[in-house]
Amino acid sequence: MDYDVIIIGAGMAGLAAGIRLAMYDRRVLLLERHYAPGGLNSYYHRHGRPFDVGLHAMTNYVPRGTRRAPLTKLLRQLRIPYEAFRLCPQIGSEIRFPGVTLRFANDFEDFRQSVHETFPSQREGFDRLVERIEEHDELSLDARPIPSRPVLEEFISDPLLIDMLYCPLMYYGSPEENEMEFGQFCIMFKSIFKEGFARPEGGVRTVIDALLARFREEGGELRLRSGVRRILTRKGRAVGVELQKARGVTKLGRRRAEVLAMADEPGEVIEAPVVLSTAGYPETLALIDDRTARSEEAPPGRMSFVESIMVLDAEPRQLGIEQTIVFYNDSDRFDYRRSDDDCDLRSGVICCPNNYAHAKPLPEGLLRVTSIANYDRWAALEKPEPYASAKRRWLERQQEKVASVLGGDFRAHVVADDVFTPTTIHHFTDRIHGAVYGSPRKVRSGRTPVAGLYVCGTDQGFLGIVGAMLSGISIANARVLMAGS
Amino acid sequence: MSTSTSVAAVVLDIIATIAPDEDLDDVKPDVRLRDQLDLDSMDFLDIVMELRKRYGIEVPEEAYPKLATLDSCTEYLGPLLEGKL
Lengths: 485, 85
Ligand SMILES: Cc1cc2nc3c(=O)[nH]c(=O)nc-3n(C[C@H](O)[C@H](O)[C@H](O)COP(=O)(O)OP(=O)(O)OC[C@H]3O[C@@H](n4cnc5c(N)ncnc54)[C@H](O)[C@@H]3O)c2cc1C
What we know:
The structure holds 2 protein chains of 2 kinds. By secondary structure, chain A is an alpha/beta fold. In chain A, 33% of the residues lie in helices and 22% in strands. Chain B has a single domain (3-81), classed as ACP-like (Non-ribosomal Peptide Synthetase Peptidyl Carrier Protein, Chain A), CATH 1.10.1200. In chain B, 55% of the residues lie in helices and 0% in strands. The model of chain B has no long low-confidence stretch (mean pLDDT 91). Bound molecules: flavin-adenine dinucleotide. Residues 8-14, 31-34, 39-41, 54-59, 227-228, 278-279, 305, 307, 425, 429-430, 436, 457-458, 463-465, 468 of chain A line the site of flavin-adenine dinucleotide.
């Protein structure tokens, strides 16, 4: 065997799993299809500026040394010092519905107060719900999935409050439409309301660089531009992978050339008795060379988004934008499901990366907007046209919406922008339908029909930057280190 | 140094690597480590992994409870670590 463990995907989950295994002397090979690590939360350059793909907020923020917190656990497990992520806490965020606003920052008491003041009749129910959430052991690897709506309805009688709680939690972590598995609800509730938001100084690159440095320090090996074409099995056991064949890079401009460089032809075979995949559950099943294993039931997710980034020539605060994140909804009920049109602007997320307690202000103003989208509609648009015009049209509508939600107008200050769609997400991460939060079917145990093949990251059910890292750690621990393999 | 202090020192040294934020100055040898320090099952796994990595000794899962206190560590790990410190 060439390696002890092969990991598919150098996103947050793959990097974290890789560090754990390399730390304990496993020969690890991390394979990434793309030309850069980071996955759904990578970074890129455009018009001479660095952009983060997905970073709004790192959830689960707690101050240094906070006991029993996921962030503390993960830093410990990876032997990364707290300072390395250079976390700057948020200023303050809002959930804005017609006529009602809830405020929260990184102190749960403030949020509780805000709920109590806004929904006096729901005080007791809300507090009891919080107790129920605290009791729940959402980290257990053999937890059974239950829907959260009936649980919430047991404690809260005002549907508006239920919608307002769901809005941030679904946007930041639900693969399901208008529902959320209760364990997932607890994870998100804790990570957003009980803990909080921070931004690494320098953007997501700070986190990726810290992970990469640790991985290399422990002797891990990373190969970029190395897409896995097949997961090889023998008698129901994983025995390695076959790569996509690498071709000479065609001169076609940066982004496209990289993808053309990988043909769907058999390439190198690499052997290992254990394969950890972060590519997603349905995506992983589709890679297995054994047809019966491939036919496992795993519906791909349907939730994807359009994300627009606007660069401003002014500090957002000077334009009256004081919040870190605003989760808005302006229709009667919050409706979190795949959009019928290209995008659904009735709700969305507005993020202002400047509004964190940075040591040094960001060089320019930034605003990011996330809207629910429809993968099929975007995929049907031909490139470059009418795809590019559709992007422009929706960007303008998003801007209009943001101006009306935040009040005041920032539009004259936009000096550059970048928009990405469900097809961009699909293109860069291979997630079916560009489904950011993966399949609604989560595999807590990490097990697949193939022995020695495990999934971690998004489709194990822990997502977001911190969640994905924790998932990589738990599966590496449970399925490799504790198994003694 | 007697074996008992050195086994405790080995374990404390490992805990210092795993949990650098914990104050290890007055850890009581007869009180459960979990009750005085913020250690969870992931951390105990790491104690075992570090023992294997540093000293080549295997602690099977059934024996994890034997690592509960510094005293019980000394009792259980002492013979395994003999000649290795
Ligand atoms: C627009 C957007 C905004 C977001 N905002 C936030 C935020 O503010 N805060 C937050 O915490 N989270 C955010 N997220 C979510 C977060 O980025 C993800 O949950 C997390 O990064 C998932 O990590 P992962 O390792 O599980 O998966 P991924 O990041 O998807 O990693 C999987 C990797 O596997 C690679 N891969 C796939 N198939 C193959 C193959 N066949 N061979 C080789 N490699 C392969 C992919 O290229 C990818 O790099 C956001 C995501 C998006 C898209």
